[in-house]
Design the sequence.
């Protein structure tokens, strides 16, 4: 089974169409390969390749106003597929849709993303609109 590594062109187009004002949060769930799968055959662990992605893409992310709003360490899948686990769990915040799109198009980022593609076995990237925190589970935020 092939993991989810990159967005499709169709989904990315939908992402760009929803160009609302304000920040976006991107929930990242990342599972790394044991050994990175570089097309040129170079040897590195998935963790080493993902660290290279972070080092090289980080300056672009920061320059465009990105920050890590939350991160945590996966411990247990309480509800969901029992064999599913994630090596990295974090929420990246961008000032707006344009900042995320600019990052994806940046030549330095485009070079760095090759490390991510080699490192990642499977991932989820979920766009969220930040809202005020509620006090209980049943408080469903109103509005768009």
Sequence:
């Amino acid at each position: 089974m092939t993991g989810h590594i990159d967005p499709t062109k169709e989904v990315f187009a939908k992402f760009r169409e929803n160009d609302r004002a304000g920040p976006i949060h991107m929930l990242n769930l990342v599972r790394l390969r044991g050994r990175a799968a570089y097309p040129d055959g170079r040897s590195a662990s998935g963790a080493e390749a993902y660290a290279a992605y972070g080092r090289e893409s980080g300056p672009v992310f920061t320059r465009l106003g990105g920050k890590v709003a939350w991160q945590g360490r996966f411990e247990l899948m309480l509800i969901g597929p029992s064999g599913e686990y994630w090596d990295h769990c974090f929420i990246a915040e961008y000032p707006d849709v344009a900042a995320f799109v600019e990052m994806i198009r940046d030549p330095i980022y485009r070079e760095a993303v090759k490390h991510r593609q080699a490192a990642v076995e499977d991932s989820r990237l979920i766009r969220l609109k930040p809202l005020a925190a509620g006090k209980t589970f049943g408080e469903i935020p109103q509005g768009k």
Summary: The chain has four helices and four strands. The chain has a mean pLDDT of 93. The chain has one domain: 21-128. Helices lie at 9-17, 46-63, 97-105, 107-119.
